[in-house]
Amino acid sequence: MAKTIKKPAVKKEAAKKTAVVKKEAEPIVAQPPRGMKDILPTDQPYWDQVRRVTEKLSREYGFSRIDTPLAEFSNLFNRSIGEGTDIIEKELYSFVTKGGDKIALRPEMTAGIARAFIQHGMSVLSKPVKLFSTGPVYRYDRPQEGRYREFYQVNYDAFGEQDPILDAQMIQVAARVVQNLGIKAIQIQVNSIGCPVCRKEYKDLLVSYLESKANKLCIDCKRRLDANPLRVLDCKEDKCSQVAASAPQSVDHLCEECRVHFKSLLEYLDELDLPYTINPRLVRGLDYYTKTVFEIWSGSEEGRKSALGGGGRYDNLVKLLGGEATPAIGFGLGVERLIIEMKRVQAKPYKAPKPKVFLAQLGELAKKKSLRLFSELEKNGILVAESFGRGSLNSQLRVANRLGVEMTLILGQKEALDKTVIIKNMTTGEQETVSMDKLVDLVKKKLKTDNVVTYHENHN
Ligand code: HAM
Predict the structure, then answer these.
(1) Which of 131, 336, 337 is the pocket-test mutation for ligand 1 (most atoms within 8 Å of CB)?
(2) CB distance 307 to ligand 1 below 6 Å
(3) C-alpha torsion sign, points 33, 39, 42, 43
(4) pLDDT tens across 398-419, in order?
(5) Per residue in 272-318, pLDDT tens?
(6) Which residue range forms the structural domain that includes residue 435?
(7) Is any atom of ligand 1 closer than 6 Å to the C-beta of 331?
(8) 270 found inside a domain
């Protein structure tokens, strides 16, 4: 009897243990979460090119870099972007921390930048305060080509200027970035969605029109009728597009101030010879916009699946978030979309300078010395390749050949003792032995006479 009682107890213990072990051994999923991806070394030349072009233009147009946290208090986004928007309703990555804070991963950068502008008293700086920012943003969207859950944006924002000349300049910067990346054929779409005063009248008009067509709208748009009627205008569903085609247009219902602002913007764009299309259905998916809104699209039919970038004025956002009333305008470009388009039009990625010198070593002493020699050359701005792990000279020379270097520096046991190095010209095969003290200067001279730029020269 006692035995039968004991047995199940042991089994229970064992079952408990297996349960614990099972939990610990949960397999690692060898991929990131859906809609997120690695950016591999092979793709980095495109990313480098985007970094270089966007940063260069930001400096040329007077922007200073700002970096804000990837996460903010959720209500910053709810307030700025708007409760009724898809980004807030469906796409926000939000969570409560162990300390009970309601936090969200940024679904865009403008709200965080405006928050930082207020927090750090930037309104006292000379205006416009131009800020450049780049980094990942997160939207729980349905992933597809060009649409991810983690993606990168570059953002250019300017605070404190309401003159439409700035709107034109921002559109010009957006176009310059895209074209400097080699995407020459682009389409600039502009619209004005007015200010809160004229937009209210326009919204009423739009809602009464849409209500009269409600039975022809998709389920989402029926819901949008209350929460965000302007978004019905850019719904991709066919039946909604048909309704939107005959809807009243915001540009026809602007107040005098907004009308003049839009007219001046178009005149500035003409002055800049920037071709644009007025798209009366361009309303953007974020609530903070006022007056000017714009998007940059690929100019060719195949590339025109999704916008490369978009932005607009947000004259009321800083005040809405508790700061002094400060007009502002900005735009964001999607880096992945820029790269997809660069590849499609065969635009050139960044080409990093390649080493022209290979350092080969033979024997223990030489191996030790070559580590210091490598850093000596590197400090002097000479790009050097090596294969320290390989023992045989032949296999090292094979690597040097494969890399197509101009010269190989060979350090053997004898050279290490004599404090010399052999320079082998990889084209002619000629070799000369030089003193280690003179090596750096000699290599520099040879690279120059061969008309080869050294690393530093190429970067400055
Ligand atoms: P947005 O139009 O929502 O604007 O995003 C800007 C760009 O980010 C888009 O044009 C697109 O290239 C890219 N993008 C958007 N969603 C995705 C996605 N799921 N996957 C890949 N790329 C995407 C804004 O975010 C505003 N904050 C821009 C702004 C700055 N307005 C004023 N200042």
Answers:
(1) 337
(2) yes
(3) positive
(4) 999 999 999 999 999 999 999 9
(5) 999 999 999 999 989 999 999 999 999 888 888 889 999 999 999 99
(6) 357-449
(7) yes
(8) yes
